[in-house]
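PROTEIN DATA CARD
Card holder: Glycosyltransferase
Chain length: 391
Origin: Gordonia amicalis
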Amino acid sequence: MTGQSTPGTIGQPGTSGLDGLDGARVIYVAAERSAGGVGAYSEVFADMLRRRLTDFHEVRHPRPGTDTVTDLRARRREIIELIDAADGRPVVVHGEFSGGSVESFWPTAGLERIRRGVLVSATVHDPPGLVWWPGRVAFLERRRFLNHAVHFPLRPLSRAIERRVVGARTLFAMSHAGARSLLRAYPDTTVRHAHMPVWSRGEVVAAPDRPKAVGLFGLVYRGKGFEHVERLRGVLPDDIAIRIAGRGTEALPGLDGVEILGGVDDADLPAYFSSVRALVVPYGTRSLYGEAFPGSSVVSDAIAHLTPVVCTGHGALGELRTEGGVLVVEEGGRTHEETVDALASAAAELVTSRDRLSAMGEALKEMREVREPDEVVRTYLDTWARALCRA
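Structure generated from the sequence above:
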């Protein structure tokens, strides 16, 4: 759908450029760079905005679960002071909402109701929930059993709180599946689809010319599939190596035929992706709280470095099958272990076919082009400009 969106619709804005933001102040509320994947994303997104806006302010917070109620109130006061210092000019407050993080959620709650001329929006990283655990302050983070004891049985209440706070705001999702899930959960909102931006850190070797290896990449935590490395190794032919990189991977047990690199800096990503012909993404169920449709920064890094992906259809990954650079292995009636076997078999077949690797490499170039930062940030700027004009 193109053109203007109204509450209860998903669409892309028409072109309005930056003119509608002239004189406006943009306040960006997001995690610090060191605060996991969302923090790393927010650092790049802030840089995209910083280079395009003349009145841009950042309000940063630490990793999820570290704020006390006092911290949340202090951050809210900081945001309100920035709003009031705009001297009546239009203000956009944009937050990054992710699972388990109340650090942007509560400080931005109700701002549009207490200050005129304020537009509040958010990118939702784990839709359909905005934060999933709206009560997770530092007290509950230190008592994880109590946190689940409070939130799991009260899931309908959590969603009602999220719906009340978000009201009729504009929400951004990084996948079409995520956007649809937001619209179902918050029918009064306006929902936009904006790709997760991809940016290459340097040149990479063409996929068919790389070493005969597959990779696993990313931060180690539940659902990311690192627990299946031994099973992958058992199914893959011996002449196909596995190279693993990412924060926390250094703690994984060693296996013959598996190279564990640990965390890698951004500058080292081209070298890492040039060392594998395909990336295997064996994501599975991550939470008992319900299905989620997060964007994958791991897949975005693979796209940026023109690396074919072999993945499950978990969450929003399934919709990538139509774009050519991603091979989705359907779970169907399989157990997750059987799906991992199928992933390994599909990866083995792929990395031995120069023609398929070349074709997927060309598709990845097109996928990277539509996810260029300039293209992505334009969706946000145009949406804000049009909303301010309507207001």
